[in-house]
Design a protein that fits this description.
The chain contains 13 helices and 19 strands. It is α/β, with parallel strands linked by helices. The longest helix has 20 residues. The mean pLDDT is 90. The structure holds flavin mononucleotide (FMN).
């Protein structure tokens, strides 16, 4: 619990700067000491005087107020421009200097037009920030300043303040706090010879988002990483599991974890034999026999403890997919199946977004298309609900 927290609030140059007034007001109402740091860009939208008046303080005479200790650095709204400056460690104004000098949690609320949010440069910058354990809230889908509807709308001030208070330790602890959580992520590669393999297109983004989310909720997280195409999050134990056999061995060694989330795409088949060296190129066909691998979800399900929560991901294609996933609950003895339709090109494998249906014994819930970290939050909420049921 943090009594009066000192919060440095960066405000950058987007239309949503006006919503930062409400963020200041809510934080001050909660009894916190807020130092507003609007950029020159932000002052084109709302004057610095407005923020200082709401924060009930004078504009500081000290030229270095931003370099003093703060319990939290919050930037809302965060423009694409300042996200790029943060990702690259630039320090060309008071806010970015403060960010480089700050050693506590950093929470950012991006707001921008959807094309800017989806640009590869912006995505890469946010990946960098996420890998550095920066907390990112939103953006959400909705009506944008230009009148179009899309991703890029800043999270609501009340939600931003709630997350800020959670980071300051002012919220009821999550049921995941102190729990041992294992997340599998990525796609296994089954060797054909020393250089070739049978693999799949999974990048590991979904599993990484789940591991990061569980860590933020206070869990002790182990990530079983199968050939990740994105950086593993900071603050979690990472165990490399490149093949299905590696993943099975490491998962079974941790089968007593409180929660196991199997988000990795584990090969169903592997070559029966793998050559030691590189097979020489030849004009002859190469016939490969594929044999089934061990079904890790089934193995964990049959070795499980009833107090544990087991989550399996199911990639399927076509209208019968959901029916097969419902059957998986009993067939593999898991508590939650996260079903995604890999027949769609805009979600799932190797994409930034996902749309899933959460299938449990209590029913089904659609999580509409959203960036994977947002989908991960919905999955973890469901895990918490199931864990709470176990306690009753
Ligand atoms: C009317 C207007 C609205 C803007 N809205 C946004 C926005 O919502 N998000 C964003 O990333 N940039 C937006 N920009 C661009 C930024 O203001 C610009 O990149 C600026 O350099 C940001 O500087 P700062 O990040 O230091 O505040 C907007 C620009 C204008 C003129």
């Amino acid at each position: 619990m943090c009594a009066v927290a000192r919060i440095v609030l960066g405000i950058t140059g987007g239309i949503a700067a006006y919503k930062a007034c409400e963020v200041v007001r809510l934080l001050v109402r909660g009894g916190h000491d807020v130092l507003p740091l609007p950029t020159r860009g932000a002052e084109r939208f709302v004057s610095a005087e407005t923020f200082f008046a709401l924060a009930r303080r004078e504009r500081p005479a000290d030229p270095y107020p931003h370099l003093q200790r703060a319990d939290l650095l919050l930037i809302a709204p965060l423009t694409a421009h300042t996200a790029a400056r943060l990702a690259h460690g630039l320090a060309d104004d008071v806010l970015t200097e403060a960010a480089l000098a700050h050693r506590g949690p950093l929470l950012v609320a991006p707001a921008m037009n959807s094309a800017m949010w989806e640009h590869p440069a912006t995505r890469a910058n946010f990946e960098t920030l996420r890998a550095r354990s920066v907390e990112i809230i939103g953006p959400s889908a909705g009506e944008l300043a230009e009148g179009e509807v899309g991703w890029g709308r800043m999270a609501e001030p009340a939600a931003i303040v709630e997350r800020a208070l959670a980071l300051l330790g002012e919220q009821a602890p999550s049921t995941l706090a102190g729990r041992r959580v294992v997340v599998t992520a990525g796609g296994t590669r089954e060797p054909l010879d020393a250089v070739r393999y049978v693999g799949n297109r999974s990048s590991g983004r979904m599993g990484v988002a789940l591991a990061d989310g569980a860590r933020r909720r206070g869990a002790a997280v182990t990530l079983l990483a199968a050939n990740l195409g994105v950086p593993a999050p900071a603050g979690v134990e990472v165990v490399q599991t490149p093949t299905a056999a590696d993943l099975e061995r490491e998962a079974m060694a941790r089968r007593d974890a409180d929660v196991i989330v199997m988000a990795a795409a584990v090969a169903d088949y592997r070559p029966a034999a793998a050559g030691d060296g590189k097979r020489a190129k030849s004009a002859e066909p190469w016939h490969v026999e594929l044999v089934p691998t061990v079904d890790v979800a089934r193995a964990l399900g049959s070795a499980r403890d009833p107090s544990q929560v087991l989550v399996a991901f199911g990639a399927e294609q076509g209208p019968d997919g959901l029916v097969r996933k419902r059957a998986m609950l009993d067939d593999k003895n898991v508590d939650l199946v996260v079903y995604n339709d890999v027949g769609r090109f805009d979600i799932g494998f190797d994409s930034d977004d996902n749309e899933v249906t959460l299938v449990s014994r209590d029913g089904e819930r659609l999580v509409p298309k959203a960036p994977k970290p947002a989908v991960a939050e919905a999955v973890l909420d469901e895990v918490e609900r199931l864990l709470a049921q176990r306690r009753r």
